[in-house]
Every structure is written in structure tokens, then in C-alpha cells.
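Everyone, describe these C-alpha cells:
***
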Amino acid sequence: MPGTWILASCSYDDSIKFWTQEDDDWECTSTLNGHESTVWWIDFTKDGKYLASASDDTTIKIWLQGDNFEQNPSYSLVSTLQGYHKRTVYSCSWNHDGTFLATVMGFILEKI
């Protein structure tokens, strides 16, 4: 997470988790659920206000940062982009000012 000591991870368990450091260990402080399959990639806007997640369920989800993020790291789902990809979405990336989002879908190579 830009500008904070919070780590975010995505997983095969269809979730996104936020972690904070407690002494010498990392502790999971919150979990985002909403995807129906593996979350392959997450990307924050430069200011951290928005988070995009790419998934095996062929969707991109857009999450909005909650109030008092430093004390309670949380995001809420504001949009699901679906119907644009027919296969797994492996990656996504915001542009420099967070106004555009690029996505990468898996592809199949066929022998001709």
C-alpha cells in the first residue's frame, strides 16, 4: 500500500488480505472477499485511494479505500468489470494518475 506500512496480498483462496507488522511478525488485519476464483494480481492507484484486482473468474474488481485507513485498513467494492474478458485476467495496472486501468488476459497458442 503506497505510503504506509501495510502489505497487501492476493491468493488462491479467492481473497485479498491486508497485513501489518506486529513486533517481528506480520498479522492479517482485514480480508476482501468478492472474487469467485484465484486473485492473480492487485494494483493500487498512486494515492492508494483505489485498488484493482484481477482474477481467474474473468473479472476485474475496483475497491475504494475506507475512512481511517491507517487505523482500520479496509476497502469496499465499488465496481465489477465483467464481460470484457473471456478467460482469466492475470494482471492489471493503473496509469500514473489513476484514470485508466490496463488489463491482461490469458491467451491460448494454437498450432496452425
In short: The beta strands are 6-10, 15-22, 25-33, 39-44, 50-55, 60-65, 75-81, 89-94, 101-105. The chain is about 0% helix and 50% strand. Residues 6-105 form one domain.
